[in-house]
Amino acid sequence: MFDFNRVIERRGTHASKWDNMARLSGITSPDAIPMWVADMDFAAPPGVTEALTAEVQRATHGYYGDTGSWAAACADWVSRRHGLRIDPAWVSPTPGIVSGLGLILQATSAPGDEVVVFPPVYHAFRRIIVANERRILDAQLIESGGRYVMDLDGLRAKLTPRTKVVFLCSPHNPGGTVWKTDELRALAAFCAEHNLLLVSDEIHCDLVFAGAKHIPTLTAAPEIADRMIFCVSATKTFNLAGAHVGACITPNADLKKRLDARIAASGVGSYNLFGMIATEAAWRTGEAWLDALLLYLAENHDLFDARIEAAVPGARSMRLAATYLAWVDFSKTGLTPEQVDRRVKDARIYASPGAQFGPGGETWLRFNFATPRPLLEEALVRLDGAFKDLRTGR
Ligand SMILES: Cc1ncc(COP(=O)(O)O)c(C=O)c1O
Questions:
Q1: pTM, 2 dp
Q2: Which residue from 17, 104, 122 has its CB within 8 A of the most atoms of ligand 1, so it is best to mutate?
Q3: Are residues 253 and 260 in contact, defined by beta-carbon separation less than 8 angstroms?
Q4: What is the 8-class DSSP label of residue 254?
Q5: Per-block mean pLDDT, blocks of 10 residues, the chain (394 long)
Q6: β partners of residue 246
Q7: 10 Å Cβ neighbour count for 384?
């Protein structure tokens, strides 16, 4: 029904993934394959294209009038997919999740305050904290049984009176960790004990593989609802990242008021018409597309893991429970991170450098495998060739 194998030419279309690759990576070959930033090379759900086409054909693109249908669609989606009942009145649209995180920091902390992150973690967390003149407090994740776990005792020892906010990534990027209820409850109790605001970025919550289940932080620990904001978005799930719309959600009316005041102060309380139309249509019509996508991504994931580990002796791909971002450790290959990076780039493939994700990421690369199988196959053939000498001694 949905043709995820179809290769769509994205070069020369202002697709950052393709058109910023040469500048960022130095790989100038026209046949380079981007496996870095987290967007997919698939067409959006048909319902999104239909809604945008109707808007384009009407050809009157004035200011967006918010009737409340967007927040209602968001609430319906979260309830249907994750069993979490929310009041649409808790929802604040923002121009994307990262901007939402910045606005949350402005609303709830002061310059010089510390924000906890769990590295290796999505690099924009670091960027938005620093850009808002707050400080990063790293609580490094530990690998246990092939997945990441949080070290809250280690974090406790690092807290200072300036520690105010915790950024959780759930599911975790990179590493695809789906946090368990008891892990979320332990973090929630920690936040209550130390008077911290818990910001739970759940942008990857819909991209969870069979066998795992995303638990919303609010479901796991409703007793700390008053000190929690969580973020979701249709843009990651349905490949609409350029639409730049996200939802920041809190049941705490006072917290929401403070966030909305920052949104108003930044002049972003009038929303992007195209983004709102696209994301509402996705939530309302995209479920069958998403279910099909998840099956396709699971096959890509299995293919990628098997082939990368066969291609590179000593490499290990973390078994993802969620996300389309393979997280591969090269520390036992006998190569330095620079040598690995060189070989991958010489194969005309751009993966995200692990060091971007903070401490603990240095020997890793993150590969985005959300691409049609013909392109993934080509990338895997190239990677196989790039490390051939390690297997054959030649
Ligand atoms: C954890 C996480 N949060 C936020 C984003 C980006 O959100 P937005 O484009 O809405 O700012 C990403 C993108 O990869 C992500 O992985």
A1: 0.97
A2: 122
A3: no
A4: H
A5: 96 98 97 98 98 98 97 98 98 98 98 98 98 98 97 98 98 98 98 98 98 98 98 98 98 98 97 98 98 98 98 97 98 97 98 98 98 98 97 78
A6: 94
A7: 16
